[in-house]
Amino acid sequence: MPTPWSRRGFVKATGGAAAALGLAGAIPVTTASGTAYAADATDGETGTATAPADEFDHLRSTWRGLILGAGFSPTAEPFASKLAQLGTSAAAWRTAMSPTAGSLWPQMVWLDPEPDTDTASYTYSAQIQLTLQRLRSMAEAYAQPGTGLTGDTGYARDVVAGLRHVVTDVYHAGQAPYGNWYNWQIGGPQALLDAAIILHDHVDDELRAAITAAVGAFVPDSAVASYSGTSTGANRVDLCRTIALSGLVGANAGRLSVAAAALSPVFPYVTSGDGLYRDGSFVQHTWVPYAGSYGADLFSGLSLLFALLAGSRWEITDPARENYFDAVERAWAPFLFNGLCMDAVSGRAISRGVPPGTSAGANDDHLRGHAIIASIVALGRAASAEQNARWRALAKGWVQRAYFSAPHTDPMLGVYKLAQLQEVANDSTVKPLPEPLEHRLFPSQDRAVHRRTGWAACLSMASERIAHYEWGNGENLRGWHTGAGWLSWWGDDFGNEQYSQGFWATVDPYRLPGTTVSRKRLADGEGGQWGAERPDARWVGGTTDGTYAAVGQHLKGLSSTLEARKSWFFLDEGIVCLGAGITAADGQAVDTVVDNRRLGGDGAAALTVDGRRMPGGSGWTRTFTDPGWAHLAGHGGYVFPEGGRVTALREERTGRWSDIRTGSSTEPVTDRYLTLYVDHGTDPVDAGYAYVLLPGAGAARTASRAAGARGLLRTLVNTPEAQGVHVPSLGVTAVNFWAEGSAAGLTVSAPCSVLVRHGRGGTATVCVADPTRELTALTVTWDHRVTSVVSRPGTVRAASTGRELKLTFGSLTAEAGATQKTTVRTA
Known about the structure:
By secondary structure, this protein is an alpha+beta fold. Helices cover 27% and strands 25% of the residues. InterPro entries: Chondroitin_lyas, Gal_mutarotase_sf_dom, GH-type_carb-bd, Lyase_8, Lyase_8-like_C, Lyase_8_alpha_N, Lyase_8_C, Lyase_8_central_dom.
């Protein structure tokens, strides 16, 4: 198991040739397709390559515009209040500055008495970054209008003196790094370089040289020589940003060349590990879906670097950059809903709540979504006119539908992001695009997103490819079961705050919605750090026609003997959820959580079961035997087609953000919940469940669906061998086969997922996928008359029609779990 330092440690030079920069000063950048060389590269410390001074002046001016924002009125809200607050804070920080050996502010000590890579050293190195970030904010207060410090040269000299103290005392070329590598290579130097660029006219040549020498020492050109270790994905983009900015500060053309060339390995699609996948998945730390956190940073970094270098001799022209333009709608937009970014792709960032000693808003799904939308708008400046216009229309739609938390007035966003969002919101020529009605399946990150009229849902799973969860740096200590079939959902005009505010600080981590979990107690940070703990399960994924889907998970519990087969069938009105083969021997009970809704306010949302309203007081609980349906006012309905034992629980829960993230606020947070769960008992053997989630449904519609109105649903099979449904009103039959066999008129020769949907004009589509990614051959037979095959994928080696359809597939191992879609004509 890697230690924090080895996992996150400095990228070492890859040999003498790289260290000497070889090839007449060109830095080698190793990629999957070979080795490329960046022209004009120089040693990051000596910086011998030069360019005309006015070229660097122009780039520094461009960067200031990018990070400070433009086109906004400093007297209008939310800018006026935000700028005034910045000025107030900056003035107070100036007064409190007390430079001594080991700190600039007494409460932010960076001097480590025992420098190494343990938890204490992480805390000390973080203080270097926090100090530099505060100085960066102080520099912004000088440059921004309306702060009360705008253009104050005496104030600027004090900020520069603070920068000089940090560079002299700790962040200098002779200092051996300790603690977290990120503070030395990305977070700290980026803040330092931003401040130096903002205050360029007040920084003398001696300090400028010291800054560039320090950054060159901690982030040499060799840090991006090999696309490996901590120099991949979002980290690589951040490292390139650090190198590029050091080039601006030091007027070093070679550093800019290195940064521009070193971005190229980020652009190609990957088939494992960190990066962007063809199916739209984005993974960081090898095993963790991260579009909402590291991916958001990468996206922001790319948009800034593309804009900075556009039109210069370092402009990013690699054709593969188009992959990230395409990813706007393939990788990021699917996880944005009414302005929020779904937590299932935010890794340990979900634990970043309210900072200690502050009443500031939490770093929640809405803030992450707002920042991504702003980055999409910014990226449009480097895209085609058509892409830019469409992305602005998408952004305007998200902004207008964000009824719970408005992106363009979010006080947690920086001025430059707010300016971008305000400009789109106020542009009358931009017509907002509506939410698409679609299903998006991401086999390479074990995630699925479903959108129908009035609601959206997201499914989070784990497999041998994707971790149960990630914890590290003391973050996300109880995210154990976020990969155990966690099913989150929102309404178009309700429930958008469901996983925001205090949710992660107060929710029972053993009862996340949709999961099947052993009640075995787990330690904080159970399993390996950085997503190292993964289940030994291959059958995780499913198939989709783009509208409906069959998704399944061979569940294996974290540090538990629990095993189960779970399936979700995503339809128009709701999601059919099936479980079978639920078995464990931990000496503990096992639950399947139908839902766990955060009620907020007084928690008075009425629960009705089979037409009877239940008590509304906190602490109430009751177990129902064979209920037909339940309804939670203001949220939705639940149908139980096979009855079972379902327990309802109302509770008030109190927690602290510090419970799940070291160093966070210790202030208690209280919220109210209504939980519905199936108790499978202690050490169950082959237990199961079946329920239908109906987001937004009223009590009458829920009761009607439970009565079988309009042939909504027939559960055909729910066993450890196969799980499937037939929905006559939609013409859909879908089965997840855990083994070879037959069900619902479908016969398969090996485990797979199959969805058949009748279309118009006598056609049908047969969608097949191999979630295991190990089938070298597969035969699927549909017991239905078929006259001809209209189209078929290249993986189909033979197709016979007549009284039945028989599809013979070749190897599916290279398809990465992707759906293979065949269209036929039926009799």
